[in-house]
Specification:
Blueprint (H helix, E strand, L loop, with lengths): L2 H10 L6 H10 L3 H17 L5 H18 L1
Helix pairs in contact: 1-2, 1-4, 2-4, 3-4
Length: 72
């Protein structure tokens, strides 16, 4: 599973306690190149969202949070 899928799955699961902490760790542990690729994947995913469901809602929220998580 690539990092994008892993992060979205983790964030989309409301029954997983502590998922924000794990997502931040995944993002912080990425190389700069991996993080740039992740940002591109989120941009593409946001551009392709056509319907509203839990995963798409998570993608929209995470798109705004990944830079913040990286900087923390």
């Amino acid at each position: 599973m690539n990092k994008f899928d892993q992060i979205v799955k983790e964030f989309s699961n409301p029954t997983t306690p502590g998922n924000e902490h794990r997502i931040k760790k995944i993002i912080k542990d990425m190389s700069d190149e991996e993080f740039e690729e992740l940002k591109i994947q989120f941009e593409q995913a946001v551009a392709n969202i056509k319907d509203h469901n839990q995963e798409n809602h998570s993608i929209l929220i995470l798109n705004d949070l990944i830079e913040e998580y990286r900087d923390e």
